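Hey,
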Amino acid sequence: MSDCVVIGGGLIGLLTARELMAAGLNLTLLERGEPARESSWAGGGILSPLYPWRYPDAVSGLARWSQSAYPAICEQLGEDSGIDPQYIRSGLLIADSDDRAAATEWAGRFGVQLLWPDAAEIHALEPRFALPVQTAAWLPDVAQVRNPRLVKALRADLENRGLEIRSHCPALGWDLEGERVRAVRTPAGPVHADSFVVASGAWTAGLLESTGLTLPIEPVRGQMILFRGPAGLVSRISLYKDRYVIPRQDGRILAGSTLEHTGFDKQTTEAALATLREAAFELIPDLARLPVEHHWAGLRPGSPQGVPLVGPHPRLSNLYINAGHYRNGVVLGPASARLLADHLTGRLPIVDCSPYLIEIK
């Protein structure tokens, strides 16, 4: 029997497993499909919330912790797994920041370098950028990772360290004894452990409903497209009207993303494809001459204001939750995983844990 079972093999589940294994626990991880093939694979990998000053401080606090941790995480994973997560400090150029006072105040509180380049300086930062704006918000320290490579590196590293991953093994329910979980039910039978962590993304609320929780986590579809271009065509992450382009190291360029409340439907649509292409061309007109190599959709774990739920179940003493990261799973992941491990092991938490605790309503 494992010390702990982690339910969910996306980035949040894998990072949580990494923290718990580092604390000395023996783990089993259950995944309903293939690990990291949902929102972890589908997202853009920007290591910052979009318009970060518009989020609650609870989001910014986790983001800042993760941003400082990512360089070492990616270096270690690259060395130990042989897979480079491609951590790149591209910077983030926000072309429609009309809340300058709020942004400046936020940057001062959290110690973030925030600049306001003029039109000539914007062109120098990103010569392909075409919007006729007189100024923009420039966050030079914002980095990105290539999230499919990051999760591959995580999985390889964790399996090398002894993590047992059971793919195509969905959690179906719980065997309870008093105020504790005895086992999680699966098609292959019950899986017992001393403690359990639910990190199931958009599927979290449904799995925990039978435990008396009604969680405000729901699937929110996001569609993205990928252009295949020459390396160096675009060098900065650019954002305008909630649409962005992200340059990859090999010349590919992501454009995203939509926000659609369509339940668990992951189908792509021609309407979204047209909208994303138009937004990308508005930002970087040179993209119009590049082929769209891929168009996909993922399901984000939507939550109110994007604040994740991280901590113990309010009724079951050995059940924990790490879910609801909405659009910011990649940038919040390391911090929320560390915070969850702090709860489970009884360590002093890295941040004030009260904004993330689960309440029964």
